[in-house]
């Protein structure tokens, strides 16, 4: 219909005004909806993070509830939960406000679009009697339908915001998993990680050269260095030093579990490693599988596993090899700290590693238990190379008084040095001590005997 003042458009005046109104109204409100949608997305992500932190803390609390009760830390734990829940509550409140605001915006948008914007283009023609009432209403409703059809993004924006928030969290997890597949490149982003691992003839044992360990950061100063350490096949070495000097970090670095630093570690070729940590956490699987870890329970027969348990001092549990629990409790709850460390001995005996790393692996055992721990390994793994971290100044000995360990790596002033456990004596002195000469008589004693004659 022709519109007064826009006669140059002819009979398309009303249609042009209608399309112009839609072209201005819908994009403008879509831009507002996008802004609100981004705010909803950020709040959804924040809500997921707050809920995840709270659930994680509840799971952690379930595992350490005994320690909290023993230390009477209920008030501290409660304040921590209150702080985490307040974060959830505040984020949830803000999310509700934004959702309500968006719903109100959408209702106002629909009303204005259907009752004002849709009826405005034909209003001039209707006032000047160039358009009858029926045509005016029909045309306006068609414009309202056009606005509604072009408003799909506005109507689904909350769902899009939720989808983007969920996809962002999943994408972050996928990227994190992908990044840790290349640990060296991952750690080089936040510090210096330049470890080199190689292999050599087993006769030469384990060699560590120009090793430096540091913390995160490009300019971090090394807290431990070792110029040249060599561990022969079958040699037992224990690490000693003050708490926090880097004993555990050294063992982790040898096993590729320390991220920052540099150095060369050369392993004996074809030799398997075994790392025994101080704290033992057991999975919810059968006892046989726990002994066979990291392999499968099908790799060893029941007889072999039972023999390993018996030699480790856990013979009372042989009849429960196929059980995942005992008396309604999983093995991680059934076994004490000392029994878990004996379970580690059973793993060592069963798997016969060539390199054994003990990271305070006897901390939960009494003195006799520590001796039995070492003796079981000594008797059943005769050619194993052992590197052990202990807090004792003197390592344990066998019941017969023989030394288990041959050498010691002492860490002092951030430097690790290796030396024999008992310094060797000169050959002449050793001969004198083992075969002392017959003592000669003093002159006064010989003179007295001659006088008596």
Describe this structure in words.
Helix content is 51%, strand content 15%. It is of the alpha/beta class. It folds into two domains: 7-180, ABC transporter transmembrane region fold; 274-420, Rossmann fold (3-Layer(aba) Sandwich), CATH 3.40.50.300. It has a six-stranded mixed sheet, covered by helices on one side. Helix 1 (13-63) runs antiparallel to helix 3 (74-117). The chain is elongated and about 120 Å long.
Would you count the extended β strands for me? 12
CATH classification, class level of the largest domain: Mainly Alpha
- Which percent range fits the helix content? 40-55%
Rg computed from alpha carbons, rounded to a whole number of angstroms: 39 Å
Give the mean pLDDT: 88
Largest sheet: spatial strand order: 6-9-10-4-11-12
Question: How is the CATH topology of the largest domain named?
Answer: ABC transporter transmembrane region fold
Q: Quick one: biggest sheet?
A: 6 strands, mixed
Distance between the amino and carboxyl termini = 161 Å
CATH architecture of the largest domain: Up-down Bundle
CATH superfamily of the largest domain: ABC transporter type 1, transmembrane domain
**Binned strand content:** 5-15%
Give the CA-based shape: elongated
What's the total helix number?
15
Structural class: alpha/beta
Strand-helix topology:
Elements: H1 13-63, H2 65-70, H3 74-117, H4 123-127, H5 133-149, H6 152-180, H7 183-188, E1 193-200, E2 206-213, E3 224-231, E4 236-240, H8 247-254, E5 261-268, E6 273-276, H9 287-292, H10 302-311, E7 325-326, E8 329-330, H11 331-334, H12 337-351, E9 355-359, H13 367-380, E10 385-389, E11 407-412, E12 415-420, H14 427-434, H15 443-452
Helix pairs in contact: 1-3, 1-6, 3-5, 10-12, 12-13
């Amino acid at each position: 219909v022709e519109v007064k003042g826009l006669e140059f458009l002819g009979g398309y005046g009303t249609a042009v005004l209608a399309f112009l109104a839609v072209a201005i109204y819908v994009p403008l409100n879509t831009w507002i909806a996008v802004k609100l949608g981004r705010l909803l997305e950020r709040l959804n992500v924040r809500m997921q993070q707050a809920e995840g932190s709270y659930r994680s803390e509840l799971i952690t609390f379930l595992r350490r509830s005994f320690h909290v009760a023993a230390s009477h830390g209920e008030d501290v734990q409660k304040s921590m939960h209150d702080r985490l829940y307040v974060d959830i509550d505040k984020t949830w409140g803000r999310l509700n406000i934004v959702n309500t605001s968006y719903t109100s915006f959408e209702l106002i948008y629909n009303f204005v679009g259907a009752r004002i914007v849709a009826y405005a283009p034909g209003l001039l023609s209707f006032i000047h009697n160039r358009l009858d009432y029926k045509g005016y209403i029909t045309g306006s409703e068609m414009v309202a339908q056009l606005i509604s059809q072009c408003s799909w993004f506005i109507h689904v924006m909350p769902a899009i915001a939720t989808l983007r928030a969920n996809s962002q969290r999943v994408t972050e997890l996928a990227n994190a998993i992908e990044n840790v597949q290349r640990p060296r490149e991952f750690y080089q982003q936040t510090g210096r990680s330049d470890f080199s691992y190689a292999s050599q003839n087993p006769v030469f044992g384990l060699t560590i050269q120009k090793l430096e360990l540091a913390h995160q950061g490009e300019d971090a100063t090394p807290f431990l260095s070792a110029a040249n350490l060599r561990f022969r096949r079958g040699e037992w070495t224990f690490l000693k030093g003050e708490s926090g000097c880097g004993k555990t970090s050294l063992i982790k670095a040898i096993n590729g579990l320390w991220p920052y630093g540099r150095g060369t570690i050369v392993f004996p070729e074809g030799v398997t490693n075994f790392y025994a940590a101080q704290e033992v956490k057991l999975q919810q699987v059968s006892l046989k599988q726990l002994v066979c870890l990291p392999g499968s329970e099908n790799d060893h027969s029941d007889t072999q596993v039972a023999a390993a348990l018996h030699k480790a001092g856990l013979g009372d549990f042989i009849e429960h090899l196929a059980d995942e629990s005992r008396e309604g409790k999983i093995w991680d709850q059934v076994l004490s700290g000392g029994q878990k460390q004996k379970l580690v001995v059973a793993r060592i005996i069963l798997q016969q590693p060539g390199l054994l790393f003990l990271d305070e692996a006897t901390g939960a055992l009494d003195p006799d238990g520590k001796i039995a721990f070492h003796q079981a390994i000594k008797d059943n793994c005769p050619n194993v190379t052992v590197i052990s971290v202990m807090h004792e100044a003197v390592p344990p000995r066998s019941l017969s008084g023989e030394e288990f360990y041959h050498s010691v790596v002492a860490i002092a002033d951030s430097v690790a040095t290796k030396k024999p456990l008992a310094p060797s004596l000169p050959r002449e002195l050793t001969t004198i001590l083992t075969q002392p000469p017959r003592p000669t008589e003093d002159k006064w004693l010989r003179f007295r005997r001659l006088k008596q004659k």
